[in-house]
């Protein structure tokens, strides 16, 4: 059976040749001269999706092959000539009459260049936030994602409707990073390469079942032959300075497309955490302030992609991208003060933590696609990721007032993760229904080693109780089926995905063996009815799974100071999420969505105080569940020709349950409101000068037994085109009044603690970009990542 399947894959590229139709013709200008190297695009009707692209030869002639019977739209574009469009119905080979292109008339004195405003498009299963050629394109991918509809950011993390279990993808391929490393990677991704951001709160069956929602970053695509490039740089001033220089390069011929981007960044990234813990048994209050200065002396973010059209039916693409930061190091300063019940200082000590944290993440992908016809195709893709990181620290503590002394310990932490995945996808459009199906296999192998040493009179001595070796092996086999049907005013889309997961892990100290094998089904359903030209109603349901980050499964202790550490749990369970949405659209401009989300066994990181040892532990654990329900409202307005506004707001309710040591369950509830207001102003249309003012907020929420304060952010942006659209300069001011500072407090049973977090979000960014080559070309989409990397 397996041999027959392999033969089938090998013969697939030959399967559709006998059914192909050829379309040919010639382009001429008004003087009947041939138009060489013009771009022709063939689109399907009625969805207008791009089916094929080609170029005319030196005699203005063109040929499309491998076309199936059906209705198409032919679009023609050439420099200096007016665009041309024609509808076609093909049932066999066709030769078109000579197409005459008229000269494009340009009055240079009247040419105006202005940046577009970000636009929001709502589809049956997602919201698309288009930022191409807007002021946001002068920032980076992190700043763009933060401003996407429905996305909140706090504490350096992203969340949607209160849930942080988000799958981040680039061009539908997963980014295998999370936390600070995901933020650093997106900060190093040039915003000029980003076309749009898709926020998919209820992903269809084709997507990985991992994550409560999907944020998909779509990079630009190159559809025209020629060369285009850019160079640029940014300077950012927060508490400390940072900056980057970057370049993007694109080149395309008739068969070959090459693209690449590179960003070099450097600077100091600062954040501070103030913790207050009341230990009732000892009648003491401990206050410490963690000031973290992370030095990124040389960050390198790169992406290279090559696409090759073997012929009209077969194409091959390969690429690599990654993040290298071999010089990363940090200094953590943690003063701790201990007070009695009368708030009199009884003890004081200060911890200095010097860290070395180099890491390297490289990903490599290969994809093959075969077209049987305009409405039928198959693709096969593989991805391999190699991730290495270190976190070596030297922690020195000086004790004062009581028993003055010095103490020291060191940790050497190394991590190596290898990820492999391969996926086969098949799709076909027919009169009965549209079909999508496929299979995926992924394998993850992770190895982590921690060497813990304590300074004694004889020097550093290894502590085997706190040293550990942790190995993790996970494989996931998945298959999916999705059907889509349009019936008059109705649109139906249903899917089913099945995933079998096998996990084996081993920890030396503490000694733990963990083996998990489970199978889950993930159904999805979308129903949409266009009641009238002005009214549209929709319903969707989906089930998702959120597997824990790999670092969360490591039971080794990671100490920040002698009285504070982080510990994972090798027996963490995956979280299952069910989501229901009811949508209503009025005149395609006013939108409302009722939602209900139920999470079972979500993983969270919570502060837990050990009152016997006066130790604050950041413990990773499962909680019984979270429940969210509410309504999202949004619209786009244009009060004046020079002023447009996108508005989003919605009330909600969140309930989080948490199991206490005595077996009882604590229910933590909060009524929440979130909203955003994005103003885009055309200051001088003729001069290409635009500006923007944005404001966003979310009120207090809950996370397990903890309460999370509300946050808000006010920002300003401006953009000016220079030198006939060859260059641009941009200004961005973020978090003007430091409203993104947040507080997390726990006050239940014998737990009485809170911390505040500020991540240096108030900053000023100045950016400059210069375009090279043919600025009329569109940028090339680069292949990106797959599924498991977001858990690194």
Question: Secondary-structure blueprint of this entry?
Answer:
Elements: H1 2-11, E1 21-29, E2 39-44, E3 50-55, E4 61-67, E5 70-78, E6 81-90, E7 94-95, E8 99-101, E9 119-122, E10 127-130, H2 141-146, E11 151-154, E12 157-160, E13 166-170, E14 173-174, H3 179-187, E15 194-200, E16 213-219, E17 226-237, E18 241-252, E19 256-279, E20 284-309, E21 314-325, E22 329-339, E23 345-356, E24 359-373, E25 376-390, E26 392-400, E27 405-429, E28 434-456, E29 459-462, E30 468-487, E31 490-507, E32 512-530, E33 535-546, E34 557-561, E35 564-567, E36 575-586, E37 590-600, E38 603-610, E39 615-622, E40 625-640, E41 643-659, E42 665-684, E43 689-698, E44 701-703, E45 706-708, E46 711-722, E47 727-734, E48 742-748, E49 751-758, E50 763-773
Domain Outer membrane protein beta-barrel: 374-770
Protein name: TonB-dependent receptor plug
Subcellular location: Cell outer membrane
* Main structural class: mainly beta
Count of distinct structural domains: 2
Mean pLDDT: 84
Q: Indicate the proportion of strand residues.
A: over 45%
The end-to-end distance, rounded to whole angstroms, is 36 Å
Q: What would you give as the CATH superfamily of the largest domain?
A: TonB-dependent receptor, beta-barrel domain
Instruction: Indicate the CATH topology of the largest domain.
Output: Maltoporin, Chain A
Number of strands: 50
* Unreliable sequence segments: 1-18, 106-117, 778-790
Share of helical residues:
under 10%
């Amino acid at each position: 059976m397996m041999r027959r399947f392999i033969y089938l894959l090998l013969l697939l590229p030959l399967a559709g040749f006998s059914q192909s139709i050829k379309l040919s013709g010639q382009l001429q200008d008004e003087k009947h001269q041939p138009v060489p190297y013009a771009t022709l695009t063939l689109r399907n009707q009625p969805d207008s999706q791009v089916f094929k692209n080609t170029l005319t030869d030196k005699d203005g002639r063109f040929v499309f092959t491998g076309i199936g019977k059906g209705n198409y739209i032919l679009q023609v574009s050439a420099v200096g000539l007016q665009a041309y469009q024609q509808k076609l119905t093909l049932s066999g080979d066709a030769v078109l009459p000579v197409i005459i292109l008229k000269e494009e008339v340009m009055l240079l004195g009247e040419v105006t260049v202005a940046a577009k405003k970000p636009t929001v498009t709502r589809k049956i299963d997602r919201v698309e936030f288009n930022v191409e050629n807007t002021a946001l394109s002068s920032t980076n991918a992190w700043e763009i994602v933060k401003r996407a509809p429905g996305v909140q950011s706090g504490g350096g993390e992203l969340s949607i409707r209160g849930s942080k279990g988000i799958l981040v993808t680039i061009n539908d391929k997963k980014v295998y990073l999370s936390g600070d490393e995901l933020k650093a990677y997106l900060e190093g991704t040039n915003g000029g390469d980003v076309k749009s951001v898709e926020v998919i709160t209820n992903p269809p069956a084709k997507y990985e079942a991992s994550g409560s929602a999907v944020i998909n970053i779509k990079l630009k695509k190159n559809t025209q032959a020629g060369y285009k490039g850019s160079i640029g740089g940014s300077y950012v001033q927060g508490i400390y300075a940072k900056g980057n220089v970057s370049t993007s390069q694109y080149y395309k011929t008739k068969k070959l497309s090459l693209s690449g981007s590179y960003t070099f960044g450097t600077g100091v990234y600062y954040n501070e955490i103030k913790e207050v813990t009341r230990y009732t048994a000892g009648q003491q209050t401990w206050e410490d302030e963690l000031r973290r200065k992370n030095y990124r002396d040389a960050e390198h973010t790169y992406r290279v992609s090559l696409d090759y059209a073997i012929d009209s039916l077969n194409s091959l693409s390969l690429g690599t991208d990654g993040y290298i930061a071999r010089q990363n190091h940090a200094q953590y300063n943690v003063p701790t003060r201990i007070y009695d019940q009368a708030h009199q200082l009884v003890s004081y000590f200060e911890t200095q933590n010097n860290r070395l944290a180099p890491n390297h993440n490289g990903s490599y992908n290969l994809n093959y696609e075969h077209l049987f016809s305009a409405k039928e195709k198959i693709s096969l893709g593989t991805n391999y990721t190699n991730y290495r990181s270190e976190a070596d620290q030297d922690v020195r503590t000086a004790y004062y007032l009581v028993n003055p002394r010095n103490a020291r310990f060191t940790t050497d932490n190394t991590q190596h993760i290898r990820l492999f995945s391969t996926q086969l996808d098949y799709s076909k459009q027919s009169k009965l229904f549209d079909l999508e199906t496929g299979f995926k296999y992924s394998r993850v192998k992770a190895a982590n080693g921690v060497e813990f040493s304590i300074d004694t009179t004889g020097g550093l001595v290894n502590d085997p109780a706190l040293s550990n070796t942790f190995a993790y092996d996970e494989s996931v086999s998945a298959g999916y089926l999705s059907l889509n049907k349009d019936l008059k005013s109705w649109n139906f889309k249903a899917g089913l995905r099945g995933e079998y997961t096998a996990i084996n892990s081993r920890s030396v100290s503490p000694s733990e063996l963990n083996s998990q094998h489970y199978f889950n089904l993930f159904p999805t359903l979308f129903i949409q009815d266009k009641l009238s030209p002005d009214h549209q109603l929709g319903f969707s349901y989906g089930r998702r799974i959120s597997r824990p980050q790999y670092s969360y499964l490591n039971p080794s202790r990671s100490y920040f100071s002698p009285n504070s550490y982080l510990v994972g749990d090798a027996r963490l369970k995956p979280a299952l999420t069910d989501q229901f949405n009811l949508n209503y659209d009025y005149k395609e401009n006013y939108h409302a969505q009722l939602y209900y989300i139920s999470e079972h066994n979500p993983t969270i990181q919570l502060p837990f105080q050990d009152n016997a040892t006066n130790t604050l532990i950041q413990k990773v654990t499962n909680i019984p569940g979270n429940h969210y329900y509410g309504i999202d409202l949004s619209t786009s307005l244009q009060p004046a020709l020079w002023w447009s506004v996108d508005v989003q707001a919605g009330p909600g309710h969140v309930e989080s349950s948490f199991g206490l040591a005595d077996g009882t369950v604590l229910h933590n509830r909060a009524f929440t409101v979130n909203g955003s207001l994005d103003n885009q102003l055309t200051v001088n249309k003729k001069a290409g000068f635009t500006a923007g003012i944005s404001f966003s907020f979310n009120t207090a929420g809950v996370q397990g037994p903890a309460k999370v304060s509300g946050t808000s952010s006010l920002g300003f942006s401006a953009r000016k085109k220079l030198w006939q659209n060859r260059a641009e300069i941009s200004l961005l001011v973020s978090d003007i009044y430091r409203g993104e500072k947040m507080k997390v407090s726990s006050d239940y049973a014998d737990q009485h603690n809170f911390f505040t977090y500020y991540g240096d979000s108030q900053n000023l960014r100045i950016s400059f970009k210069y375009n090279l080559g043919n600025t009329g070309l569109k940028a090339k989409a680069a292949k990106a990542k797959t599924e498991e990397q977001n858990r690194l």
